[in-house]
Queue: 4 jobs
Job 1
Amino acid sequence: MSHSTTSPQHPVWSEDLLWALSVFDAAVLLVDGDLHITHANPAAHALAAKVDPDRPEPESLLARLPRDAWQPGSGVGRWRSDIAIGDAIVLQASAYCGLRHGEMRRFIVIEDVSERIARERELTSRHDELERTYRRLASTQEQLLQTEKMASIGQLAAGVAHEINNPIGYVHSNLGTLRDYTGALISLVEAYGREIGDEHQAAPQLQQVRERLDIDFIVGDLPQLLDESREGIERVTKIVQDLKEFSHVGRDEPMRPVDLHKGLDSTLNIVWNDLKYKVRLEKHYGELPNVECHASEINQVFMNLLINAGQSIAERGTITVATGTDGDEAWISIADSGCGIPDESLARIFDPFYTTKPIGRGTGLGLAICYGIIAKHHGRIEVSSRLGFGSTFKIVLPVKQPRLESADA
């Protein structure tokens, strides 16, 4: 049923009011107590045609208001809400209800706020994207600072290791000489004991001194003490040498043939303190030729994978390191009996900033860095995992780096 702009059975609104409504940008509907439109301004007709071209009458706007719009404040009051029409149109409707000359009157204002809502959504989306970008940049900056710090520490460690080598060298040499001197003195003491004999007058007194100083125990224990000290110095020497090799900065140097077993053992020696309390290590080394690479970068890959393997083991477990060759490629696998990786995460573990570790335990860059290093060496990393049973990372590297064809070839 169609309604005219004004209904003759209701009092006519003042001409000034109607004129004001005619130039009003928002759609305005004047409704009587029976929910009949007594007046609709031109903006209401235009909005009705936009919202529903098949029903361009203002009644189509009225039909979109929920029933609770007519019952605010027990019949007298106001109501306001947004009305979404599809995905593109949002209307903001306000209904004002009151009594006029004893009859209920309703004054309804409807605005098309689609563009404003779209702008707000776009601003919200841009704000969220900026927040994500900021967090990524902040994380990248933190990682770059950490990388720079680690590079500085690496150079410092190499310098410190070089300085430590000198005192370790002469302490090691002195311990060897001291053992020789001690052996000579002990031989002399034993010879004196045999020459004096029981018949000599001083023998009882010397025997008392020998017993009081516990010479027999010293003679037996001193060589063992010297051997243990020398063994400790040799171990420190090995750690310092491993640290020098691990921290060697040679990224601008050409790749050279490297003994990967030596790099593995050096890296294990460095990280073993973090693993030894909960990890049983198994090594199954095959025959490996020297592989062309940057040793310090490959050692960094070993370290990241070994630390990850250790972190995946909660209490007690096994890490198995194996090596071998396949044609002109060398491979190194690092397997753990840890918690494993969920299937949905396997495809993303090499993505920058992606991590399954708890907050504060990982930046999500370790495996991404490993991937980049191995790709730079024209190799690949293969991973297999079973949730609750552990993971295996297999590094495959060409024994010889591919050579670029010369321009004359």
Note: The CA atoms of residues 161 and 240 lie 5 Å apart.
Job 2
Amino acid sequence: MKRDGWTAGQRLMPIYDAKRWEKVARFLRLPDEERAKFADWVTKVEEAESKATCPIHMSSMDGR
């Protein structure tokens, strides 16, 4: 592929599992503030070793 491992992986993800890649891409389109809230929430849940409902609410992103 003549690319570094990260770039090669990015190019392979949509080919290997398009639906899963779309979920990642949707997350990456979230505003920075919302991604930060999500990351904080994940950290708290992992530290507590518990389950929780995600506090982030969003509307459809079909309009992108």
Note: The chain has a mean pLDDT of 83.
Job 3
Amino acid sequence: MGFHSKPNTFVGHVKIKVENLERSLKYYQEVIGFNVLEQTKTTAKLTTDGKTSILSLEQPENVVLNQGRTTGLYHFAILLPHRSDLANIVFHFIDKGIRIGSSDHLVSEALYLSDPDGNGIEIYIDRDPSDWTWNNGEVAMTVDPLNFEDLLSNGKQEKPWEGLPVGTVMGHIHLHVSELKKTEEFYTKGLGFEVVNRYGAQALFISTGKYHHHIGLNTWNGVGAPPPPANSVGLESFTLILPNEEARDHVVANLESIGATVTVENDIFITFDPSGNRIQLEI
């Protein structure tokens, strides 16, 4: 549907920190269904197509557990190509005895779970955009019960589990932030996103190209929540894919005009949102 391709700006990759790389690799391969693209003693790049990575794992030195009530990752969201893919992964979770949460968001159907370190994961499929409801620039989203009976009628329980299908992408990321006013300015005036849904005074959902959201931002860990320690499990960084070099230069100028800092490390443009979440700007 084009929401995760240029000329839109979208989340292309997420990198998370884990306590034990070997344990996490076992989980992400056997439970979630990724394959390993590259691996070192402390890092791994995961793939579904054998060519590109949408998720990376890192085991920091002197790693510490998640402290809670901090900024950082709420969840990253894996978008599957077809509704049958979501049904098939439900059958897989049933076979594995994996407990999951679920929701019908009107724009999408979603499953929720956490990895061994408590990193939040959403696995979802989008409904056709023609079924989304827009009103005054905001898209209607809710948290309704998922109709599993109808969903599973689209799956193939007898088919062997083959992991995440080719065509799976990083659909969005949802972050804990310390406040919303400066955060909204950073992501809209700085990075060029549009607010497409407000959840009271506690959360914002933003996108480009009229997607329901490429990024969610919430203060559910408390206004003024501090960033986690650098060696804590959780979010290391996420990558935004920009349309071209001109667009990136424009974003850099906009970020600097609102007081944000952009640095270049090994030809990678890096910035931090007001809550300390690390963002890589790529083209």
Note: The domain at 10-282 is CATH 3.10.180.10 (2,3-Dihydroxybiphenyl 1,2-Dioxygenase; domain 1).
Job 4
Amino acid sequence: MSHIAFLNIPGHGHITPTLPVVTELVARGHRVTYAVPAGFTDLVEHAGAQPVRYPTTLPTSDEEWPTDMAPAMRLFLAEAVALLPVLAERYDADRPDLVVYDIGAWPARILARRWGVPALQFSPTFVAYDGWEEDMKDLYDTPEMEAVFAEIQDWLTAEGEPTDARTFVGHPDRAVVSIPRSFQLNGDSVPEKYTFVGPCIGDRSFQGTWERPDDRPVLLVSLGSAYTNEPAFYRTCVEAFGGTHWRVVMNIGRHVRPEDLGEVPDNVEPHPWVPQLDVLSKATAFITHCGMGGTMEGLFHGVPMVGVPTIGEQHLNAMRLVELGVGRYLPMEQVGVESLRAAVTELVDDPAVARRLAAIREEIRHAGGTTAAADVVESMLA
């Protein structure tokens, strides 16, 4: 029995894609520990892992997260500085044979090097391709980002880590990527050390199910688990699709109350949370913030998406859906009753969209998902 340690950051979009892989590895006879804060212990235990609890320094409120890259990276650096000695102590008497880590779990590579064990990155999002630095020059080569990389370099040097800061943050030695290659930016230019396995989807029935009350086509509306305090957006969705032929399932989050939406027609269901994967399995269309997790779940189920992103990567995801011909990009400031209706109608009425979604679903099926990811993990143990 090998001991595999998963190190991650406390975010559903980062932890959720790994959980089916944890379950698969445990089923294959491995022992898996998973370092998480208290709020995620139930999830990793349900997947079959032993939680290794730690106190996080990252913001607990959605609204406290910065939207700009430099301050966000400083938060990850502060977390890494605080967490490195904690994880070193937690694992001192139970060192793993392999470390699997998230793109934001910076202590992982340092600990793996100290322990003399391999490290495998599990990326739930885009990875670097040949020419990445040149294409991202305007984003990274700013005084603010230069200062952040200098701070990261100081930390790495103090910890005896020989890798330079930019390589450390953006270029792993080996990685599994839980998106299909066709969705990756410049997918044909990604080095072979990255294995695209596509979405890793597991059984989430323990989170509940949603039963369709009638035969109307289902429209799911969700801005994810962060930045959901958008009552005007939800009211616009109610006005656009209330009283129509759609069955609208709307995740309004914990900040907005149903009474904030005004009069809600019978065909609209506002919920503080929904079992998204189950709803998507029955959905015809999806209005989404385009977080990578939800975007991959939409592609997995072949559901066309209208992207209404709020921060960084979400805009890239929405634009990528447009480039692939399976979605529409609608910035929040352009959201209106007519624009929402038109975007959804154009997608569901276009047979070419359905054909392209079917092709992506076939690619995802052949990529292997959870099984392929677990195979790569095991190959690192050889």
Note: The two ends are 13 Å apart (CA to CA).
